Amino acid sequence: MSQQTYHDHSNLTLSYTLTMIKFTPFLACALLARVTFAIPAPLTSLARAAGDTCPANVVSCQNGSAGVDSCCVETPGGQLVQTQFWDFNPSTGPSDSWTVHGLWPDHCDGTFDEGCDPSRNYPSITDVLTENGKEDLLQFMNEFWVDINGKNEQFWSHEWNTHGTCMSTIAPSCMPEGSKTGLDAAFYFQKAVDTFKSLGTYDFLSSAGIEPDKTKTHTLAELTSAVKEAHGFIPAFDCKKGSLNAVYYYFNLQGTVMDGTLVPIDAPKGGSCPKTGIKYLPKAN
Asked: Active-site residues: which are they?
């Protein structure tokens, strides 16, 4: 019986082995305050009714966040990781774009929780998004958040069940009064996609002359410098048999998943790529 793997954290990536499923797997607006390159969310009108009781300008994993209501600041998962795949054989998504893996709420020290609330493991992410008016989001996900075997629904469910349910600011007690079932998941997927849209990895690399090629190789320093030049911060890269396969962008969060602003930080640790000889292979047709 063949097996497939969900890739999450192990070093940076942890594999979840499931039977018959395989997952090998876009700058930002400036925050007009003390932090630059922050990414604001577009969902302010949906903020929780009690949102005005939250202290202003509190950023997760930074001074002043300790002891703040977990509906107001991500606790303990205040180090958010936006993960992307470059699936080249078999390939997923457009040939000139990386694809979404997920958005993970790591603890400030890099540890993490998973599967925090099985009672919110919704039967269908498609239904949840549709019922909460997120048809456009769903359409985007079907192009850019895709499973290597076409099992998108199962992929999305895994990311929500494993990571989304661990985000404290979209816990049931923090949601707006009268929210529809699944609005928490809608907030999660919207935040993940909006963040992905602000992080155009393909364009970051291309702007430095780094494009997919069957034979050319790169150093890790070249890849990292290209992204830092465009994004302003250092990411982490994973490789699969010496070929570029995943990228990890790190953030803290000012405010909530519903209406907060992501604050980029440098990756606190490196990925699995070697220092030299890294291939960036074209996606197979």
From this structure: 101, 159, 163
3-state secondary structure (DSSP) of residue 229: helix
Proportion of the chain above pLDDT 70, given as a percent: 81
Give the number of C-alpha atoms closer than 13 A to the C-alpha of residue 47, restricted to the C-beta side: 16
Can you tell me the distance from the alpha carbon of 127 to that of 121, in angstroms, rounded to the nearest whole number? 13
Place of tokens 């490789």: 239
What is the phi/psi pair of residue 50, to 5°? -90, 10
Angle between the 135-144 and 152-162 helix axes, to the nearest 10 degrees? 110
The pLDDT of residue 63: 87
- Phi, psi torsion values for 46, nearest 5 degrees: -105, 10
CA 32 to chain centre: 24
State the pTM of this model.
0.84
Q: How far apart are CA 263 and CA 280, in angstroms?
A: 28
Distance CA 158, CA 154 (A): 6
